[in-house]
Amino acid sequence: MPDDHGLVEALTTILESLRQATRSQRVTLRIDVPARDIHVDRALVEVRDPGVPAIQADTSLKQRQLATVRHLEATRDLLVQNDCRQDPISPPPELMAVYGVRAQILAPLLGADRTLAGWISVHDTVAPRMWTPHEEAMVREITARVRRMLEDAGWL
After folding, report:
1. CA 137/CA 74 separation, integer angstroms
2. Number of domains comprising the chain
3. pTM of the complete model beyond 0.85
4. What is the DSSP letter of 54?
C-alpha cells in the first residue's frame, strides 16, 4: 500500500490517462476521508490542460448541496451532461461562468456501505458535446480502478 503522497500521485496518473482518453480538458477527484482531513469541498486531485483554470483550491461551493451531487446521491450512477447550460440538472453557475465547463460526466465513488464517498468529474471546457458510449465506459472503468485503489489504501 503506498503512503498518502504515493496514492495521490498514482491517482493523478490514472486521472490524467482518463483526461487524455476522453479528450477532456479537466478531470477532478473529490472524496471525503475525515481521518485525513480530506473533504469533497476541495478536489483532492485535478488534472487539466495548460491554460484551463484550476478548480482544485476553490472551496466556495458546498459540493453536497449542489443539484448534480444530489443526483449522484439519488441514483448512484453516472451523470452525463452533454450541454450543461441546457441540462435539467443544473450545475452551479460558477462552474460554467468561472471554470468554463460546457459538458461533463460525474461518476460516483461509493463507500463499502454504498454511501456516496466522492466522485470523479470529467469536464469539457471547449463546447457542448455528445459523450460517446465508449467514453462513458472508460469513465466507469477508471472509477472502478480508483475505488479499488482507495479501498486498498483504507480510504473507503
Report:
1. 21
2. 1
3. yes
4. P
Q: Which three cell numbers stand for residue 118?
A: 466522492
Return the C-alpha cell found at 51.
Answer: 491554460
Angle (CA) 23 25 26, round 5°: 120
Query: Which CATH number belongs to the domain containing residue 133 in this structure?
Result: 3.30.450.40
Sorting pLDDT into bands at 50, 70 and 90, what band is 1? very low
Tens-digit pLDDT profile for residues 56-96 = 988 988 999 999 999 999 999 999 999 999 999 988 888 88
Q: How far apart are CA 24 and CA 27, in angstroms?
A: 7
Q: Structural domain of residue 128, as residue ranges?
A: 4-152
Task: Give CA–CA dist 21/15, Å, rounded.
Answer: 10
- Residue burial 65-92, b: 16+ Cβ < 10 Å; e: rest: ebebbebbeeeeebbbbeebeebeeebb
